Amino acid sequence: MAKIRIMLADDHTLFRQGIRTLISAETDMEVVGEASNGGDAVDKANEARPDVVLMDIGMPGLSSFEATRQIKKNRPETKVLFTVTRANRWTPKGAVNALTKEFVKVLARYVGTHA
């Protein structure tokens, strides 16, 4: 079975490193690129050709939503999943969502089988 190709897009280096470490322990997934702002996410998604982009909902520069529009325009088969690591203006009613290894695995597999 082919590995699920994942790109990480988050402006927090430590968060990207942590998720990369979790994913690297999985035999059926691999990180194929990283970006620290919205514009970089678009460029790197075009280069790396990921199956899934894990995108921080509050990316600096080009907004996460505009970056997603451009990624989907260029690569409609790529799935984009938004992550939220802290309460901010994008977080509904102040809820904080935690991104865990199992969450990433379940979503990546779901996206892979429902493409």
SSE arrangement:
Layout: E1 4-9, H1 13-24, E2 29-35, H2 38-48, E3 52-56, H3 64-74, E4 79-83, H4 101-113
Parallel strand pairs: 1-2, 1-3, 3-4
Tell me what you see in this structure.
Helix 2 (38-48) packs parallel to helix 3. The protein has one domain (4-85): 3-Layer(aba) Sandwich (Rossmann fold). It contains four helices and four strands, in the order βαβαβαβα. The protein has helices at residues 13-24, 38-48, 64-74, 101-113; strands at residues 4-9, 29-35, 52-56, 79-83. 41% of the residues lie in helices and 20% in strands. By secondary structure, the chain is an alpha/beta fold. A four-stranded parallel sheet has the order 2-1-3-4, with helices on both faces.
Determine the structural class based on helices, strands and strand pairing.
alpha/beta
Shape: globular
Task: Bin the helical content.
Answer: 40-55%
Low-confidence stretches: 91-100
Count up the helices: 4
The H-level CATH homologous superfamily, spelled out, is: Response regulator
What is the CATH architecture assignment? 3-Layer(aba) Sandwich
Number of domains: 1
Give the end-to-end Cα distance, rounded to a whole number of Å: 16 Å
N to C succession of SSEs: EHEHEHEH
Write down the overall mean pLDDT: 82
- Rg, please? 13 Å
Q: In this structure, how is the largest beta sheet organized? A: 4 strands, parallel
